[in-house]
Amino acid sequence: MNTTKSFSQAFNDTTYKLGGNGKRNIQVLIDALANIDENLASDMYGKGKLIEDFQDQMADYLGKDTAVFFPSGTMAQQIALRIWCDRKGVKRVAYHPLCHLEIHEQDGLKELHHIEPTLLADKNRLINLEDVQNMPKDIACLLLELPQREIGGQLPDYAELEAISAYCREQEIKLHLDGARLFEILPYYQKSAAEICALFDSIYVSFYKGIGGIAGAILVGDKDFTEESKVWKRRHGGDLISLYPYIISSEYYFKQRVNKMEQYYEESKELAALYNQCHGVTTMPTEPVSNMFHVHFEIPKDQLEPILTQVYETTGVGLLPYLSNSSESTCYSEVSIGDLYAEVPKDKVKIAFGRLDAELNKM
Ligand SMILES: Cc1ncc(COP(=O)(O)O)c(C=O)c1O
């Protein structure tokens, strides 16, 4: 096959990209600040109208008493679990084997807080009610991640979620939501954010996933909980003198995108169907339940990269920015739909998938 460019170069050079909201460059901040009054007072160490108004707005949207803005979800969630463990006097929590705390945080929970996790369920499936009922008794908090990112953004049925929540309340186990992508799942459940949050004692949401901001997180819960989280935020060095670039951009992109989640969800189903029509390609889930899904290929990365590179170069359509091997003979990638998908002419998408399928059929 005649390919001249590297895979990532070929992707970057495409005119149209099927995933995301666009480049993560400085323009993202410039756009967010464009219409802000330059005399607006900065927040100072977690206080001031700018941060307090946004926290109130988010507490209201998520249906909880109070909210605290954090620089990162990593910090917010470790703190949430620490508080629930301290309250119960038990240094044990439960979560999925592939949750962010277990695989992406360098063991922060264990090293900084000496909290040990019980890993629930096989890593390739969701936690269910039975897993929760069979947990050891000495659990201070169960963390659920919705959607479960590392397995393609799968979601439990709402009834299962309600049953897990009721069981935890009955057993006096706190329930925390890793809702990094909470806004993205509302169209599937056909529920408001507040309805889903009502099932949980504490919730974290992110402003840079589907919302597409720069960074930043909100932690919500009752007043005692959030007040205590502010003390821990200071201990963690997260009480930056000013967080306004993150707060302003979070609010700006929240307003711009929170009501587009239904559109992204529909587009994600449309795109997954196109992948599933290609030879040797499947998506997980088969029909997505949010704006994200994983695409699995029955050939290894080093064989797929030149095929995709040629599709990108000949059609101008960038399907996937990267691939990861899942075994010696298979690879996969993650898709997250944002603003860009709607900008791609449908005939170009069709041509790109036609080329991909034709090439895969030759393998
Ligand atoms: C599911 C999930 N939880 C938590 C986090 C942590 O967020 P942050 O990068 O703000 O620390 C991430 C980040 O990718 C995530 O995907």
Automatic annotation (TrEMBL):
Keywords: Pyridoxal phosphate. GO terms for cellular component: cytosol. The keyword Phosphoprotein does not apply. SUPFAM superfamilies: PLP-dependent transferases. InterPro entries: ArAA_b-elim_lyase/Thr_aldolase (IPR001597), PyrdxlP-dep_Trfase (IPR015424), PyrdxlP-dep_Trfase_major (IPR015421), PyrdxlP-dep_Trfase_small (IPR015422). Residues 42-296 form the Aromatic amino acid beta-eliminating lyase/threonine aldolase domain. GO terms for biological process: glycine biosynthetic process; L-threonine catabolic process. The keyword Cell membrane does not apply. Gene3D superfamilies: Aspartate Aminotransferase, domain 1, Type I PLP-dependent aspartate aminotransferase-like (Major domain). Its cofactor is pyridoxal 5'-phosphate. GO terms for molecular function: L-allo-threonine aldolase activity. Belongs to the threonine aldolase family. This is Threonine aldolase. It comes from Paenibacillus antarcticus.
